Amino acid sequence: MTSSARRGGTASSFRSLSTAMLKGFVRDRAGLFFVFLFPLMFLVVFGLIFGKEGGTKPKIGVVGDGPVVVALEQSGAVELERLGATDDAVRKVRDGDLPAAVLAHGDTVELRYAASDQTQAGLVRGIVGGVVDKVNIAASGQPPKVRLDSQQVEDSSLKAIQFLTPGLLSWAVSTSAIFGSAVTLVSWRRKQVLRRIRLAPVPVSTVLSSRLLVSMGIAVGQTALFIGVASTPVFGLSLSGQWWLALPLVMLGTLAFFAIGMFAGSFAKTEETATAAANLVVLPMAFLSGTFFPIQNAPGWLQAVSQALPLRHLTDGMLDVMVRGKGIEALAVPAAVLVGFAVVLGAVASRLFRWDDA
Amino acid sequence: MSPIGGADGTIVVADLRKRYGELQAVDGVSFTVAEGEFFGILGPNGAGKTTTLEIVEGLREPDSGSVLLLGEKPWPRNPRLLPRIGVQLQASSFFDKLTAREQLETFAALYGVSRGDAADMLDLVGLADKANTREDKLSGGQRQRLSIACALAHDPDIVFLDEPTAALDPQSRRNLWDVLRVIQQRGKTIVYTTHYLDEAEILCDRVAIMDHGRILAMDSPAKLVRGLDAPTHVMLAEGVLSVEQAETIPGVEGVNADGVSLTLSTRTPAPVLAALAERGALDGLQVRTATLEDVFLHLTGREYRA
Asked: Which residues form the ABC transporter domain (chain B) (predicted)?
């Protein structure tokens, strides 16, 4: 066989292996669900839950009437629930149905708040205190000494979907890549597909790179789906200028997690073990990398741990280019970390590669 | 030992040994297979057939001994040799969710073979009407035949089949025999393992009988059976003839009545059958000559249990 004919053979092997794996993937309904719909469900559910968060006001109970109650109503800072009796209002606070209740009789205004939620309590105390002061100043007839001019600024980081889309997409891409390589490798070894490939004059690299190509195609599909759904008016994602830089980042993420999956797959003997191993790697990593919720409030040591995880850097990079308006310079660190993981784990996995179980 | 093949055989195996812990799985196996020959490796489960075959295919490294296929060493993985051998594996190993035709095309592409031959291969193994059926929807026998078609997809010179008829129903086994005969007619050298001695007797040009990692005997099935000098058994329905009458027939060496039939043992079946015909005792008559199972019994001193 001439070298050119052999190269032609490798190219056709690569093409037909990729096609075979893509067909196998597309025809696997459960696989499609876990790769596309399952992570999308997270996006939809979290998007709907947290989407309202910016607009919720504390709801407090009110008994009686007076200038303070009227001023509270006009402030727009709280929602009021009219209650008939003082006992009723206090019980509702005690039961946790309401964070606080205002009891107005004449010039005395009592505030009863639940101690359990300090944030809510502080908020309500501040609001009610401010309103009472305002009423007092107005009653004194004096002009206020200090004027506060407050205006709302639309801050993109407030909107949950801006944070959720890059995070959940990073999680979806890494999960699919790690499962795609770990479970495929183990299932092929167990079913002796690897043995059959070993008996054909085709290099291992061709087999692995064709599976990697399919994983990358899947990642592009996930990116398109996530951005498409999140951009609908229901969720209202607004992408920043160079959001398309997310694509090269998604490719690098796929590469890194594919290598991690290869590594896990070289130990596991059954598909079940491979699935468990992949979950064990990817789930804690997802929580520690700020894919579901921000990690900024976590203790320092946990943040340090988080910095060692490839998913953290993928998520950071995605946030930077998709919604924080950063450019290509934001890719430097994530790209270096992801390529590093891919090279090191890929090298170890290829040393551990086994054609057969025995 | 063998008149065929010799040093220039298509397959030359010399003194293979392989040990797994305490178990000497292969214990000094040598054989040669000539071009176009249908060679069977027989024996009960655990005899070392599959290990021997895997070493010959180049899937395992022997502890000692040598293998040459078409003049090439199969171990370590030898890409020059791989296109010239086709291996059907014991487990039916396929890609997920692909149809019969797609499986064949994918395997052919691994060898750089164009897709045109897939239809021909499916036809050969009798799966032309299942081309668009997914592998997981095929019956066991159909999967086995597809597996063989995949092993042949790149038109190899030597075909290895490991227990191709195991776990098949009798009808599927017979269908597969036809497939194997056609493959041999196409000039392929076939090496196959089986624990069905009757099947090997029908299909193989030459067989090696293995037990405990060694080859006990190797020759054509007919020569092995003839070499036994075992008596022929003639079975009659009970009551056609009495035991005493049977014993008087010249050439009869033994008579055995088991309540259902009367069995006469003889090394000269022709005059015995003539004598039975004279007495009008041919109704329901059956003649059983020695088989490879008798050869196995003779070689090992125990009944053959697959």
From this structure: 11-237
